[in-house]
Write a structure and sequence with these properties.
By secondary structure, the protein is of the alpha/beta class. The chain is 41% helix and 25% strand. The chain folds into 3 domains: 3-86, Orthogonal Bundle (Arc Repressor Mutant, subunit A); 92-159 and 265-291, 3-Layer(aba) Sandwich (D-Maltodextrin-Binding Protein, domain 2); 161-262, D-Maltodextrin-Binding Protein, domain 2 (3-Layer(aba) Sandwich). It starts with a helix and ends with a helix. Keywords: DNA-binding, Transcription, Transcription regulation.
């Protein structure tokens, strides 16, 4: 039994007329009649009642048509899915990213890419570093944009941005008049930190440990915007990147004089993962826009 036989049968079942069905299929009437007869022989039953050139589908044909319609629908879905993965200009890119990046970077990146590639669609997932990593590990996302270099050798890292980190205080804080500050100056200050599963938290703890002092964590927030809100309310100081989602009123951003205080953003790509042409093209776009010009 061939797929074309099923397509021919379904068209005849819908039109109940050999000549019209043959014209719709762009084949000759004898060829169509032969294909239907061959299918009936294979099934061992007649599927139609012949009335001159007209055909009337019988109960066996009706039962079979319901199944064939579903089969052909699934085949069409499969063809569309293959198109998604083989056409770099009209595919779907499955991308996961950190929550904070959804305020500014990701919307700008997608908008710029879709202006040049209007038929591309994105399936997006956002969350903390653990949630988005799980999306990639389980195959729901092909790439992720995050602020922590991979700890596993199964991932490649493509750096995008390196933004300076700032000490952030409320406008009423004694440090608010400073333009530059050393991290050691905030030792002992009430510190608004981050809960587990945040890459910036891990980076801060590592850095201050190497500088031989500790941060007096008073509050641990779930995300960076919450940290900024707590600081603006005068509940402590913190260290944050200056991004669009954190520019709240009531904050003073102070440049850190110690070297190396940067917030990196980049792409994680699983090395052994098959990437669709659409995804590969998007990665090449990121490399051209951010990496090759840096």
């Amino acid at each position: 039994m061939e797929l074309t036989q099923l397509e021919y049968f379904l068209k005849v079942a819908q039109m109940e007329h050999l000549t019209k069905a043959a014209e719709a299929l762009s084949i000759t009437q004898p060829a169509l009649s032969h294909a239907i007869s061959k299918l009936e022989v294979e099934l061992g039953v007649d599927l139609f009642e012949r009335v001159g050139r007209n055909l009337r589908i019988n109960r066996y044909g009706t039962l079979f048509a319901k199944r064939v319609e579903k089969i052909l629908q699934e085949v069409e879905r499969g063809k569309n899915e293959i198109e998604e993965y083989t056409n770099p200009d009209s595919g779907v890119i499955h991308l996961s990213y950190l929550n904070i990046l959804g305020v500014d970077l990701i919307p700008r990146l997608i908008r710029e890419y879709q202006l040049a590639n209007p038929k591309i669609n994105f399936e997006l997932t956002q969350g903390d570093k653990g949630a988005i990593l799980e999306q990639v590990e389980q195959g729901y996302a092909d790439i992720m944009i995050t602020s922590e270099r991979p700890v596993s050798e199964t991932f490649a890292w493509l750096p995008m941005l390196s933004l300076p980190l700032y000490v952030v205080v409320s406008i009423d804080h004694p440090f608010a008049g400073k333009e530059v500050i050393s991290l050691e100056e905030i030792a002992g200050e009430p510190f608004v930190g981050l809960k587990h599963n945040c890459s910036l938290r891990d980076s801060l703890l590592t850095r201050v440990h190497h500088m031989n002092f500790t941060l007096a964590s008073t509050y641990d927030a779930e995300d960076l915007p919450t940290v900024a809100g707590f600081v603006a309310a005068g509940l402590g100081v913190s260290v944050l990147p200056l991004t669009a989602g954190l520019k709240l009123e009531g904050l003073q951003w102070i440049r850190i004089q110690d070297e190396g205080w940067k917030w990196e953003v980049g792409v994680h790509v699983k090395k052994d993962r098959f990437l669709s042409p659409a995804t590969q093209k998007f990665i090449s776009f990121i490399e051209t826009k951010y990496i090759n010009v840096s």
